[in-house]
Amino acid sequence: MNAHLRAAFYLLFSLVLITGCSKNEYSDTYNDVTDGERIMQEQNAAIQSYMMANNLSLDRDFSGIYYKIENPGDPSALMTLNSIPTLNYTRRNLKDSLLDASFGSTNFDGRALKDHIMGWQIGLRKIGKGGKIFLIIPSPLGFGNVSVGNIIPANTVLVCDVELVDFK
């Protein structure tokens, strides 16, 4: 190998090493996606175990939520993300511990569906007014790695019974 080729090779090799060792500006996002995928896989296995232990047969949405439509409700009265739902609901974890419940109808102080957790945004648009749905929501589609006060711990899979009483 002549001197010019050897120098070019070393320069190219050095650039590859320097570039490979530099911090990627997208590395945090990439790690979050990897962590999110890992959490979804782990929680999917836990959900499958829960379903087997409770003899549940649920559909799985491409998003990762599991659901069973118990009452489809009025098919001509479907919500959009801007709708304000009035719901009766219970939220539990995979150990069947009650986390919270509406104890009657609530519209969450007029909060639009788009301002609720992603699992509810997906699930509630599968039923019409008067409908009822059972949902199992992996934490990335629920509250994620954020705890909700002392009520819902971070990374909790949510098991929800939700009735869509009405919406505006």
Tell me how many strands there are.
8
Tell me the number of structural domains.
1
Q: Give the overall shape.
A: globular
Q: Provide the CATH architecture.
A: Roll
Order of helices and strands: HHEEEEEHEEE
**Beta-strand content estimate:** 25-35%
Low-confidence stretches: 7-30
The largest β sheet comes out as: 6 strands, antiparallel
Rg, Cα atoms, Å:
23 Å
Class by helix and strand content?
alpha+beta
Number of helices: 3
- Main-sheet strand order equals 1-2-7-8-4-5
CATH topology: Chitinase A, domain 3
What is the CA-CA span between the terminal residues? Answer: 77 Å
CATH class: Alpha Beta
Helix content: 25-40%
Average pLDDT, rounded to a whole number, is: 86
Task: Write the SSE topology.
Layout: H1 3-21, H2 27-53, E1 59-60, E2 66-71, E3 74-78, E4 85-92, E5 98-101, H3 118-123, E6 128-129, E7 132-137, E8 158-167
